[in-house]
């Protein structure tokens, strides 16, 4: 593989991983599939790309493609890739548990929101025109005539308790 094509493969691979981590699974599948097509699949790097592609397939709800690729990777020359594909295949082929709707938390789909949406601007006033910043003023002084300053003797009880514990530790030689 030439240096230029290896660079392209690495760019596609990094873009696929980044898209996966942002939750853009279909885009991740595209990048990783392109990287996998350009690299020798029997190398460790090729196997690593395909493992990422399996997880992207699963995240993009393409379970059959993920299972098929895992079964292909079971014959990969690298022991680590074979082992990882067996673990993934075990997870993918596991039976789905029935979950009651009240056990689940619905996560909204944020795929429609653009990364650099021009409607939201940090540090700028809202559409009303005024900024909602609080004025920092010193706290009001406390009126000490309203504070209960009666001695409840707790401090003396705690001090005597500590002294008794320390004295008993000295007496027993700890």
TrEMBL record:
Classification via SUPFAM superfamilies:
TPR-like
TM annotation in the entry: 154-173
* Keywords for this protein: Membrane, Transmembrane, Transmembrane helix
Locate the region Disordered: 123-144
Q: Which domain of life is it from?
A: Bacteria
| Family matches, as InterPro entries | TPR-like_helical_dom_sf (IPR011990)
Q: What is this protein called?
A: Uncharacterized protein
